[in-house]
Amino acid sequence: MDNLSDRPDRFGPVSRALHWSMAALFALQFLSAAAHWALPRDNALRQTLWSYHIDLGVTLFLLVLLRGAWALWNLRRRPRHSGLVGRAATAGHAALYALMMIVPVVKIPAAAGGTRGLSYLGLSIFPARETAIAWTQAAAGWHGGMGWMLAALVLGHIVMVLGWHRFIKRDDVLSHMA
């Protein structure tokens, strides 16, 4: 098990696999949301990308639960951040984890109370309703707004890793997760 765990100098293979697989899925998820927002309703690319949005979202939610549990299990072994920038990194990571949890969670009541229902990989989670439950639909707007906040935080995360650590400080922070 030690060869799978995180170390103070580097994240272990499980943490790295979860990080990079989630990064790829989030890129697809944000692409599907951007296409849904920017392209005309009858655009084939928009429809194709959007058709994967729920399955990607549920998969990401399950992965963030797994990743959070793994991170807690490895908390004392993980690479540390020091100084003011380290505290900012810790706060930024906490905000990322919080939004990765909250964004899908606020969509659950909207899906449960909506007219479309919710299925995951063809399995019905919530059946469609004839009429929506009005109070549950407010969460749909929160889901979208917080999703874009999450996208902005992810972009900030990338800028800090590449811009600050790689090109300005020229340290090896990226190697912790590579």
TrEMBL record:
GO CC, alphabetical: plasma membrane
Membrane spanning stretches: 20-39, 51-73, 94-112, 145-164
Entry-linked InterPro entries: Cyt_b561_bac/Ni-Hgenase, Cytochrome_b561_oxidase, Di-haem_cyt_TM
Domain of life where this protein originates: Bacteria
Intracellular or extracellular location(s): Cell membrane
Gene3D superfamilies listed in its UniProt record: Transmembrane di-heme cytochromes, Chain C
Predominant cellular place of this UniProt entry's protein: membrane
GO biological process, one term: respiratory electron transport chain
Domain Cytochrome b561 bacterial/Ni-hydrogenase per the UniProt entry, residue ranges: 10-177
Cofactor: heme b
Molecular function in Gene Ontology: electron transfer activity; heme binding; metal ion binding
Membrane topology: Multi-pass membrane protein
Alphabetically ordered keywords of this record: Cell membrane, Electron transport, Heme, Iron, Membrane, Metal-binding, Transmembrane, Transmembrane helix, Transport
Family, per entry: Belongs to the cytochrome b561 family.
PANTHER family to which the protein is assigned, alphabetical: CYTOCHROME B561 (PTHR30529), CYTOCHROME B561 HOMOLOG 2 (PTHR30529:SF1)
Name of protein: Cytochrome b561
Source organism (scientific name): Primorskyibacter flagellatus
